[in-house]
From TrEMBL:
Keywords: ATP-binding, Magnesium, Metal-binding, Nucleotide-binding. PANTHER family: OBG GTPASE FAMILY (PTHR23305), OBG-TYPE G DOMAIN-CONTAINING PROTEIN (PTHR23305:SF18). GO terms for cellular component: cytoplasm. It comes from Phaeobacter gallaeciensis. Its cofactor is Mg(2+). It comes from the Bacteria. Belongs to the TRAFAC class OBG-HflX-like GTPase superfamily. OBG GTPase family. YchF/OLA1 subfamily. ATP binds at N12, V13, G14, K15, S16, T17. The gene is ychF. This is Ribosome-binding ATPase YchF.
Length: 365
């Protein structure tokens, strides 16, 4: 499946620093000048999940394999990006290909690090970026409306549906609001997603604060929190610089460092999990002596499609899924104990997999 989160924001706010921390690499060049990044950097990140370690410990699994999510570090956007300012159109196309947006906002004060507008004001910065995304959507909608005129006149059903949705989005955007505020019916959901509008993508604000503020945030991040709440969006507080330092440390060193900073867990873990929630994703597990592994599904996925994440044959030849809820697996100390307690269920094709299910698929090919 591969869910992709785009790291978006003004130039020089810490996007590449964050990307490097997430991917534990120095793959992206991060430096104190705007437009340091031009070509997007793409990296896969393991989704942290303490449950997986507990399952592996019980089953004595040799290997632990977390499920993965993709992050894309995208070039900085500036005012006028939708008109091509600062290579804007190319960068907007990079955003179009993502499933959700991690919007990095500069919340740290540091006179040595240039801000493109010469002041620190994350709420205005967020508006600048959102405005560009809205303008880009308006432009692409107008183009598309022109392109389908003939088909609509000819009564093409798909085109008629598209036109209706495009006009709905356009009205919202012209009212100065992002298209994500539109609630679409189930029958329109697929066509709506196919429009790939930038402002329909769910947003998570990432408040990039100074080193000493990583635990509590600061006055800037408090304002972002207020804005996010008013919009119904989520936010996380992180210091990209510290996270990058932590990501270079061994696990036990990192833990000591976190305690010193007054942090319970790395901000990155919170960020990745928030992204996972934003995308309405859930996890199921497969557990055995060889490996304990986490798999990602969309909330509401049925047994065969969940099996298909592992392999297409599993989906096509799906018979049933032996299912143990995570809590039962832990409470009864593994598969055997759960079975004896009557907690292993045989679930068929219509079963909707639940977050935390430990599954064993039976299939024929
Ligand atoms: N929390 C922070 N506190 C202080 N400095 C930071 C913080 N986060 C990032 N920086 C610094 O800000 C500068 C810009 O960082 P980075 O290159 O990651 O930004 P960017 O958003 O990727 O920029 P561009 O859009 O130009 O690619 C770097 O010098 C980096 O060390
Ligand atoms: Mg960069």
């Amino acid at each position: 499946m591969g869910f992709k989160m785009g790291i978006v924001g003004l130039p020089n706010v810490g996007k590449s620093t964050l990307f490097n921390a997430l991917t534990k690499t120095a793959a992206a060049q991060a430096a104190n000048f705007p437009f340091c990044t031009i070509e997007p950097n793409v990296g896969e990140v393991g989704v942290p999940d303490a449950r997986l370690d507990k399952l592996a410990a019980i089953a004595g699994s040799k290997q632990i394999i977390p499920t993965r999510m993709t992050f894309v570090d995208i070039a900085g956007l500036v005012k006028g990006a939708s008109q091509g300012e600062g290579l804007g159109n190319q960068f907007l196309a990079n955003i179009r290909e993502t499933d959700a947006i991690a919007h990095v906002l500069r919340c740290f004060e540091d006179g040595d690090v240039t801000h493109v507008d010469g002041r620190v004001n994350p709420v205005e910065d967020a508006e600048t970026i959102e405005t560009e995304l809205m303008l880009a959507d308006i432009e692409s909608i107008e183009k598309r409306l022109q392109n389908i005129v003939r088909k609509v006149r000819g009564g093409d059903k798909e085109a008629v549906q598209q036109e209706r949705l495009l006009r709905q989005a356009l009205a919202m955007l012209e009212d100065g609001k992002p298209a994500r505020l539109i609630e679409v019916d189930e029958e329109d959901a697929k066509a709506w997603k196919m429009l790939q509008l930038l402002t329909t993508k769910p947003v998570l604000y990432v408040c990039n604060v100074g080193e000493a503020e990583a635990a509590e945030g600061n006055a800037h991040s408090a304002k972002v929190a207020e804005m996010a709440a008013a919009q119904g969006n989520s936010h996380v507080i992180i210091s990209a610089q510290i996270e990058e330092e932590i990501s270079q440390l061994e696990d036990d060193e990192a833990e000591m460092f976190l305690t010193e900073m007054g942090l319970e867990e790395a901000g990155l873990d919170r960020l990745i999990r928030a992204g996972y929630e934003l995308l309405h994703l859930e996890t199921y597990f497969t557990v055995g002596p060889k490996e304990a592994r986490a798999w990602t599904i969309k909330t509401g996925t049925a047994g065969p499609q969940a099996a298909g994440v592992i392999h297409g044959d599993f989906e096509r030849g799906f018979i049933r899924a032996e299912t143990i809820a995570y809590d039962d697996y832990i409470a009864h100390n593994g598969e055997q104990g759960s079975k004896e307690a009557g907690k292993m269920r045989a679930e068929g094709k219509s079963y909707i997999v639940k977050d935390g299910d430990v599954l064993h698929f039976l299939f024929n090919t």
